[in-house]
Design a protein that fits this description.
The complex is a heterodimer of chains A (323) and B (447).
Chain A (H helix, E strand, L loop, with lengths): L13 H14 L3 H23 L4 E5 L5 E5 L10 H10 L6 E6 L8 H9 L10 E5 L8 E5 L8 H5 L5 E3 L5 E3 L9 H5 L5 E3 L7 H4 L17 E3 L4 H5 L5 H5 L5 E5 L4 E4 L5 E3 H7 L15 E4 L21
Parallel strand pairs in A: 3-13
Antiparallel strand pairs in A: 1-2, 3-10, 4-5, 6-7, 8-9, 10-11, 11-12
Chain B lengths: L8 H14 L7 H27 L14 H13 L1 H11 L6 H24 L8 H5 L6 H21 L3 H8 L7 H10 L7 H34 L11 H27 L8 H32 L2 H11 L4 H19 L7 H23 L1 H4 L10 H4 L5 H24 L5 H15 L1
Helix pairs in contact in B: 1-19, 2-18, 3-5, 3-11, 3-15, 4-5, 4-10, 4-11, 5-7, 5-11, 5-18, 7-10, 8-9, 10-11, 11-12, 11-15, 12-14, 13-14, 14-15
Classes of the chains: A alpha+beta (323), B mainly alpha (447).
Chain lengths: 323, 447
Amino acid sequence: MSKDKSRIKEKTKIDEVLEASRRDFLKKVGIFGAASVAAAGALYSGYRYEKAKSDGKTIKVLTEDNRLVEVPIDQIREFKPVLKAQQTRGREGIEGKRWVMVIDLSKCRNARKCVDACQSAHHLRPYEYHINTLVMQESVNTPAFFMPKPCQHCDNPPCVSVCPVDATYKRQDGIVLIDNERCIGCRFCMAACPYSARMFHWQEPVAAEEDKDKIYDVELNIPHKKGTISKCLFSADRLRENTLPYCVSACPNGVFYFGDENENAVTNGTTKETVDLRDLLEKNGAYRLMAELGTKPRVYYLPPKNRLFKFEKGPETGYKETT
Amino acid sequence: MAGYLFSSEKDQKRLDLIGADILRNVSLNKGFMLWMSFLVVALGVCLFAYSIQLREGLGVTGLRDITSWGVYIANFVFFVATSLVGMLISSVLGLAGAKWIKPIGRIAEIIAIAFAAVAGLVIISDMGRPDRLPYVFIFGRVQSPILWDVTVVSTYFVLSLLLWFIPMIPDLAIAKTRLDNRPVLLAKVYDILSFKWVHHEAQFKILRQATRILLILIIPTAFAIHTVTSWLFAVTPRSGWDSTIFGPYFISGAFVSGTAAVIIAMYFFRVNYRLHKYITEDHFEKIARVLILVSLVYIYFNLNEFLVPGYKLKTSDAIHLKDLFSGSHALLFWGVQIFGLILPVILMLFRAIRKPLPMLAISVVMLTSSWLKRYIIVVPPQAHPSLPAQNYPVEWIIYKPTLIEALVTLASIILVLIIITVLSKLFPVIPIWEMAEEEKETNTTDK
């Protein structure tokens, strides 16, 4: 890991940091990668055949393995993902990555933009949370502060241990996901999660009609299914595209950092500044929620010291707090 | 005839007499038909409620993200608990040499069968996707306590069924010729199920051996079913569930609810089936003592479960315990502990209370309390999660069971009653051959 250190001394954009390994991981994505290469090959040979007789109208297309190819326009077919392949790559995760999130509590003013962005991306109702912002107060003498709370993506996840059917699982890149094609709705994982990170579809999902023809994407958890569990996915679909998670990029106040523990680099979602992970954690006295439980969360919190904002209630959420 | 039991004329006469008493209720009479049709109609209404839940999803219940396990799970725990009594009466007391349990052993097994069988169905009513039940067997992971629970509950059900049936084989042979005007079909069924039993000594030897093996096997199985059920809670880090004594705490509680259920059944069969001669006042006296013993053990575990964390008052435990001791669940908590446990024990110390009718009243109160106690174990610990429940609609935070939940729960109780009714109406509830054997023994010693 130390050899990476020199590379991240200069602050680079996350895209540049991740680019080097992108080509590498795409080769190893397994079924999905192989399928796309085969598809590109088929397209290419089809193109050669068509070229001989077509009128020559072509278009340039970038294949998934980064080859620029020219194909006749009438040969273009819309790509349809296959459920099985989606689930397979969704279970394996992105090789070589260990995703990590850092939440700087000194910057949070409860704008709830993270919540909004998440709920619109994942088609949730205003009170169905993958991420929620909580008002926290240790004691009467300590000031209250706001705390965004996504799934902690524990390295020792109690929810995964208790699942009877392997519907929720831990991926190699650290993300805990749910396959709602597998979930039986026993809610043992909800009972086991100390962070109350999980939600259940008690009724028909809000966008059921809109999403009903979509092929299930396990990395986005859409379409949702009534009677199954959902929760924060660290925006696994966005990570697949080398983009920051929805909540991270939506924050207007620079609260979220997100990145790869293996590269020791995290990028701030607002400023797009990439910083040294260990340095950030050490200098700010980072901690993890309920570390004493031994769940080993992948979400770190920086304490709410020297806060940028006075504590005041954020925008009305429409739901009265009861604690 | 040598080698055959009950072969003398005297023995046959004895069987006639006892058989007539015990087989009196074996008939599909008007009362049975009326009672069964009432149960079936009531079940139909409740199943309609379940069909609404199937169509609309679990949203028709009071369950939400904060309290996601409610009366269905509490009811499941109660059912598993009550079924444990089969093991307590037949195995623990039976193997210890208590002779008086002979006439009530089969009643205890009937209760065990009914509650264990329906417990499995209760858990399905709590599933968000009951259509995916086969996934538990196709994709089952041994790490999950749910898999352990499925395995041991079904094993216990099968063992209980065998423990009910195998000792009944001689009875079926005795009864098949003594059913008189009862349906011919039933006599045929008895004939088939009695496997050409002729009361030969060798047959009894095999029967006794088989029963003994089952009685021994069922002890660890019964301990396993309720220990594993307690682990569904104890393996999570929630205050109120995060306890190392949950296994024995659940088992001792199970003996209380199961014994109370058996006493209610004893009273009912004694009065309705006119079995005063076989289920005597002495039986109530003896089982009352058993109930006192198991209640004291349960009180001891309650003391440990609540007093020890209550002394330390760790932050999250304190929130939970305050809710129970003086908060929104206080009335229920103290009501169950005092009227469902402590007061009955004190009352039962008096001989006048250890009679059939007072024992019936006490058992009904204790059985009801046992159900409510399971509610207290399951629901309140979820109301106060470690991180505050904020930005939810109020009705998402405070759990209130709905009518549909109540009806689906009622359906499970009706199903238990149906199973008990069928088993006790179509088969002898008291072992005829054991009664005859006992009578013979006492007569010879008298002479």
